[in-house]
């Protein structure tokens, strides 16, 4: 079992990867594995961590582990290619990788001579042959098939299926006649003289494969006991007859190229010497050209170096051309081949970016193909006739003319190359003189370089001194920056404190303005209270004067009534009733005046309670006492008036009953009434005098309270202004002192720095 990494390109390159286990020799030598596979994630990881580097992971379409079989890689990678060949495409499958990684094993595997079941170790070639014949037999198709098998060794092409009689005169099996590679004018290549063998069964192809494989050049190296020293290309040409509508017969053509590339190798590790070393160099050169072609195709370069190697010329159609291509890249998990493994995986990973443009081969009419076959047969007859009629080796005229033309082209090329060599020799002389001049210039530069080195050493020492001085200056600057930052912080703190003090002063000024507004409102309220008291006093004086006049008038009327009572007894009762009614009205009016007075006093009390702050309580007490006195007075007056009314009514009833006795007692009653009225008048006068006294006392108290409030307010305002001025002056003095100290310290620091 070998380790494989396969990659298929259908329109683009798809990747399949299979990893083999370590060989028996590697296991005996305890060689570490540097490659791990993850079938689920379809990743191959190169363990660079063994050399303390980052691992590198490559992602493929499918990854097969070490236990995978040949059948699996064929079914997934090659079987779709074979199906496309039978559909009329040109397809290529080739193995790519380091020597000793199983390329030949993957492509050929174990051969079989008889038709039967393929062994499990059978490679791509026998499985592809069996697959093709199974499909054609299942379709019962009318077909023809021919094969070719060539070898590319040291940039020389030989035919591995050439008959023995053509080379029996050669003693060395490694010296075979070479074939020429020519362009077909369509972007492809044609190999002149390559033998095409018609086959009819898988067994014939197996025999040809085994015969050609035994003739391939191999050698024993330190990396592989049977290392292929050449590239091989096994091609199968298939022609299938297809019947179209109208019973027209067409031929569908397909070609399958199975390429087994020789492995790249490190000459130091493979132990190759002399001839083997030259072989390895040529192999590596052709594989390097293949890598450059892949890189150019991936990078979409304008020039792709197909013509730098015959290998790339053979594979030109498969690399960016019209064919469908499957690359099977093989690597070894051995840690000793880690570098080659990385190169192979990198080429395989980049190759999937190549874009091919597959085209189906044009179907050929059967008659046209038969005509071509007849021409070839005629040409072969002419060759045989020329060989029979003459001694020695003869060829037809057409072939001779063609070869002469080729020789002329070669002579022209040789002349062109000689001219080119002469031109190059002249350029070589020119470059030699330039080289000598450059050497002389280099010696001068070396002398200057020594002088500059001395100068540089001196500059280095000076630079170190300057660097030390610079470090000291930096330390000093850092200290100064630290001090300045602290000073700036202190300045910021002082400014913040000053802002707070300014805010406090502004708040105090606002409070003073609010207090002044409040005092103004209080003065206005006191003026309004004075006006209310004055109005109340005038109204009360008017009411009391009206009451006094009413009482006096009543007394006068009583006197007139007493004087006229004797003569006017009949009108006495009506006058008495009228007087009583009038008295009732006066009493009701007095009650109303009493009620209004009490209401005014209550309103005055409420107003004074709301607007006065410091003197309201005392004023309320005084007004309440006065209101109580007025209430008492009016109550007494009402009660006395009611008593008078009751006595008048009682006297009237007594007069009605005892007219005679009432006349005698009338005078006594009138005298009592007069006395009561006089007493009532005196009481009213005394009450009004008391009210005036209390009112004047209340006004004095209000004036004194206002003067006290004004003086206290003036003292508070004066003290507050003085305190605010003192605090502001103190804050300004502190700020000035701090700023002066900061300025002095900065000046000192600057002077010290200057010194």
Automatic annotation (TrEMBL):
Keyword Mitochondrion (UniProt): no
Primary localisation category: cytoplasm
Superkingdom of origin: Eukaryota
InterPro entries named in the record: KIF11-like, Kinesin_motor_CS, Kinesin_motor_dom, Kinesin_motor_dom_sf, P-loop_NTPase
Coiled-coil boundaries: 370-469
Record-given protein name: Kinesin-like protein
UniProt cross-references to Pfam families, sorted A to Z: Kinesin
CC annotations in GO: mitotic spindle; spindle microtubule
Binding residue positions for ATP: 97-104
């Amino acid at each position: 079992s070998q380790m494989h990494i396969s990659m298929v390109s259908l329109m683009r390159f798809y990747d399949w990867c299979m990893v083999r286990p370590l060989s028996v020799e590697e296991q005996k030598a305890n060689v570490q594995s540097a490659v791990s596979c993850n079938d689920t994630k379809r990743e191959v990881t190169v363990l660079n961590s063994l050399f303390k580097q980052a691992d590198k992971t490559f992602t493929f379409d499918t990854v097969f582990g070490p236990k995978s079989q040949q059948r699996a890689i064929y079914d997934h990678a090659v079987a779709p290619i074979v199906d496309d060949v039978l559909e009329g495409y040109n397809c290529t499958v080739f193995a790519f990788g380091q020597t000793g990684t199983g390329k030949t094993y993957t492509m050929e595997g174990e051969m079989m001579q008889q038709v039967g079941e393929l062994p499990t170790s059978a490679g791509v070639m026998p499985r592809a042959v069996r697959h093709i014949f199974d499909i054609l037999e299942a379709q019962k198709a009318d077909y023809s098939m021919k094969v070719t098998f060539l070898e590319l060794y040291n940039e020389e092409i030989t035919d591995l299926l050439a008959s023995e009689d053509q080379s029996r005169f050669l003693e060395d099996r490694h010296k075979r006649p070479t074939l020429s590679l020519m362009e077909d004018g369509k972007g492809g290549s044609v190999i002149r003289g390559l033998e095409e063998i018609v086959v009819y069964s898988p067994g014939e192809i197996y025999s040809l494969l085994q015969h050609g494989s035994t003739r391939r050049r191999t050698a024993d190296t330190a990396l592989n006991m049977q290392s292929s020293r050449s590239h091989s290309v096994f091609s199968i040409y298939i022609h299938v007859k297809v019947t179209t509508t109208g019973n027209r017969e067409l031929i569908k053509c397909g070609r399958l190229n199975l390429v087994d590339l020789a492995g790249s190798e490190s000459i130091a590790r493979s132990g190759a010497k002399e001839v083997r070393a030259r072989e390895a160099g040529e192999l590596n050169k052709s594989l390097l050209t293949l890598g450059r072609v892949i890189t150019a195709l991936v990078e979409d370069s304008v020039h792709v170096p197909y013509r730098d190697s015959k290998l790339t010329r053979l594979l030109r159609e498969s690399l960016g051309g019209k064919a469908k291509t499957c690359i099977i890249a093989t690597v070894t998990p051995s840690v000793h081949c880690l570098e080659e493994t990385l190169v192979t995986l990198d080429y395989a990973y980049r190759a999937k970016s190549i874009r091919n443009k597959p085209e189906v081969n044009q179907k050929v009419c059967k008659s046209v193909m038969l005509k071509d076959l007849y021409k070839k047969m005629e040409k072969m007859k002419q060759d045989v006739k020329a060989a029979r009629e003459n001694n020695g080796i003869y060829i037809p005229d057409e072939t001779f003319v063609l070869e002469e033309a080729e020789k002329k082209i070669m002579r022209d090329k040789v002349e062109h190359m000689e001219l080119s060599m002469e031109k190059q020799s002249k350029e070589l002389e020119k470059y030699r003189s330039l080289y000598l001049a450059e050497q002389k210039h280099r010696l001068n530069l070396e002398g200057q370089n020594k002088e500059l080195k001395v100068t540089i050493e001196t500059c280095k020492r000076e630079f170190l001194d300057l660097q030390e001085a610079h470090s000291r200056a930096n330390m000093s600057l850092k200290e100064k920056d630290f001090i300045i930052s602290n000073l700036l912080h202190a300045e910021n703190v002082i400014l913040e404190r000053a802002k707070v003090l300014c805010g406090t002063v502004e708040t105090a000024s606002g409070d003073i303005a609010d207090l002044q507004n409040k005092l103004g409102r209080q003065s206005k309220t006191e003026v309004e209270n004075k006006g209310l008291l004055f109005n109340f006093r005038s109204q009360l004086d008017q009411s009391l004067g009206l009451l006094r006049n009413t009482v006096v008038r009543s007394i006068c009327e009583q006197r007139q009534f007493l004087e006229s009572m004797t003569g006017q007894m009949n009108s006495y009762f009506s006058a008495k009733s009228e007087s009583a009614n009038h008295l009732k009205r006066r009493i009701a009016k007095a009650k109303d005046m009493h009620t209004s007075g009490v209401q005014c006093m209550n309103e005055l009390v409420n107003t004074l309670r709301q607007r006065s702050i410091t003197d309201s309580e005392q004023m309320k007490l005084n007004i309440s006492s006065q209101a109580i006195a007025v209430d008492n007075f009016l109550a007494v007056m009402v009660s006395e008036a009611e008593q008078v009314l009751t006595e008048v009514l009682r006297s009237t009833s007594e007069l009605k009953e005892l007219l005679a006795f009432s006349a005698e007692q009338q005078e006594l009653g009138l005298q009592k009434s007069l006395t009561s009225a006089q007493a009532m008048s005196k009481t009213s006068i005394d009450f009004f005098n008391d009210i005036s006294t209390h009112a004047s006392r209340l006004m004095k108290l209000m004036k004194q309270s206002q003067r006290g409030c004004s003086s206290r307010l003036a003292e508070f305002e004066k003290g507050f202004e003085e305190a605010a001025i003192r605090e502001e002056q103190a804050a300004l003095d502190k700020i000035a002192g701090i700023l002066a100290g900061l300025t002095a310290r900065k000046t000192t620091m600057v002077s010290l720095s200057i010194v």
